[in-house]
Amino acid sequence: MSRTDWIYCAYLVTIVCFIVALQFLSHPAKARYGTWVGAVGMAFAIVATFFTPGLTNYASILIVMAISAPIGAYAARAVKMTAMPEMVALFNGVGGGAAALVALADFHNSIPEPGRLPYDSSVSIVLSALIGSVSFSGSMIAFAKLRELIGGRPITYPGQQIVNMALLAGLVALGFVIVFGPQRTVLVGVLGLGALAFGVLFVLPIGGADMPVVISLLNAFTGVAAAATGFVLHQNVLIVSGMLVGASGSLLTLMMARAMGRSVTNVFFGAFGQLQTAAEGGVSAEGGTVRATTPEDVAVMLAYADRVIIVPGYGLAVAQAQHAVRELADELEKRGVNVKYAIHPVAGRMPGHMNVLLAEANVPYDQLVEMDDINPEFERTDVALVIGANDVTNPDARTNQASPIYGMPILDVDKAQNVVVLKRSMRPGFAGVDNPLYTLPNTQMLFGDARESVVKVTAAVKAL
């Protein structure tokens, strides 16, 4: 076998590893193995690339790797789980930007004199530059919104959609000019700059509550850009891996939109989140009364219950309360209480957010129950303990057609015999809408930091 054959074999191993990694990542119990399998596949690809015939700039590559690898490793280990969506957006944007830069460089270096590039190469370069640039700038705006560097509310202006469509049409027209007309590097540069502007204008009107869906779609964009770059560089491994990312990102986008009871077009063109909310300290439900409780009262309620369902949300992630919750569940189980965890598909800031948090605390996987399976059990549940989950427990999604979240599938916690909600204050959730659950007669509020509240409840249970 020649050196090229060995390289192709290594790339084939990479492709197989990526496919197996995706399969493992589909289940929490195997997700860690999937991460390692994917990393091994990437290692094969990197090593094989160093043996590419004609490659000479080893020093430059090694210098860049020596600088960037420690930065990436530190960032991955230091990031908090609550900031994971921001990191995903950031890394995704870097991938899209890399694809666009590779397209620009390859176009500049490949134009024959005299002559022109073949149509297939030109189309691949245009797609890579266009989609990669949109993914980069859009991901940076999504990062800034999730990081609260800019406001999470939709940023709109009159005629915004018309401007966006006109800009997109102009970029497509410029792409045709590059493919069929004069092939100049400056035109590809203008295409990239215009795509950067479109990415910004595309994401700014979308509310912060929808940023996880936006990130998922932009992730799919990056995959398609990488696949187009694979055609540019004639690299099968880039083509296959890019399409895997593109397909999985597209499916995830559809699944997340469905989990919120909304269409993808509504997410991207509905300016969700652009509404006025009630002032802090009150709720929108007419005539409702909020009943506060104490850790000791909650402890009695939990200790003498038969069935308890814990509903984790973003507040649990912010407070890093997963270990305290596991300790509380252990104490309840010692008393013969049946404890389960209700997992909503979009609880937190990204799919699987709650699964990962609870896995950190070694919560058994069989206690994590998905929304469709757990909802019928709430009516037979003595206590539903809601920890920081707001929008995914809002009964307005079922009953109030005027609510912007109407039709969104929720966890039916309001059907439990008793509901205890752990929150810092009465501020609305990420979607910016009030939750009438908090004024129902079977609901009590335990105000304070989630972890501290759970610790106090656990201590009170032990004292009984």
Describe the structure in your own words:
The chain has 464 residues and is an alpha/beta fold. It has two domains: 79-269, no CATH class; 295-463, TPP-binding domain (Rossmann fold), CATH 3.40.50.1220. Helices cover 58% and strands 7% of the residues. The protein has helices spanning 3-25, 31-50, 58-78, 84-110, 119-146, 160-180, 185-203, 211-233, 236-259, 264-269, 295-303, 314-319, 322-334, 353-360, 371-374, 396-399, 450-463; strands spanning 307-312, 338-343, 368-370, 383-387, 418-423, 443-447. Strands 3-2-1-4-5-6 form a six-stranded parallel sheet. Strand 4 (383-387), helix 16 (396-399) and strand 5 (418-423) form a beta-alpha-beta unit. It is globular, with a radius of gyration of 25 Å. Residues 271-286 have low confidence and may be disordered.
SSE layout and pairings?
Blueprint: H1 3-25, H2 31-50, H3 58-78, H4 84-110, H5 119-146, H6 160-180, H7 185-203, H8 211-233, H9 236-259, H10 264-269, H11 295-303, E1 307-312, H12 314-319, H13 322-334, E2 338-343, H14 353-360, E3 368-370, H15 371-374, E4 383-387, H16 396-399, E5 418-423, E6 443-447, H17 450-463
Parallel strand pairs: 1-2, 1-4, 2-3, 4-5, 5-6
Helix pairs in contact: 1-2, 1-9, 4-5, 4-7, 4-8, 5-6, 5-7, 5-8, 6-7, 8-9, 11-17, 13-17
